[in-house]
Amino acid sequence: DVKVTQSSRYLVKRTGEKVFLECVQDMDHENMFWYRQDPGLGLRLIYFSYDVKMKEKGDIPEGYSVSREKKERFSLILESASTNQTSMYLCASSLQFYEQYFGPGTRLTVT
Amino acid sequence: KQEVTQIPAALSVPEGENLVLNCSFTDSAIYNLQWFRQDPGKGLTSLLLIQSSQREQTSGRLNASLDKSSGRSTLYIAASQPGDSATYLCAVQNTDKLIFGTGTRLQVFP
Question: For residue A100, what is the nearest residue in chain B, using CA coordinates?
């Protein structure tokens, strides 16, 4: 079974802090994705990566950056957390551009 | 720009009913359509994937159909159970992205 893990289920940070969200997959997938999910807005793509050291902006990249130094790990970075980044963050991976497998999510609260 | 709509937004039914969840999309040039289940506070679990060349897929009590020309998909759940209570999301793939609907929140009561 594909397993996608995220470093934290719940996280509370203060405004202005630098925040790292980690995602690891164990199926040697080339593609990895970061989404945020908000009530009434659904899932929105922040960034995705085709391969190591490759990254592409999604629909809402502002205020975020990513890092992919190893194939199995994709990190989302909030350079200076703000309250409007309070959300559920979901990581996913896929072998090709379909059948995405999701992690359990990280609920981030910025106060 | 692709838009995905799911109707109804919420549904509450008694156990044992057969039910249909609807998904519509505006751009028929899709590679595939995927249905997911999401339990409260959890990640997404993939239920069914329909390639653009396919008309339907089945898994147990679930059957998903795809009509690309009309921009519609339905998820049919037979003999619903309380354990089916969750939010169901559909997503279509255009090029390299999945575009999600906002989901249907289903409650099945005993």
Answer: B46
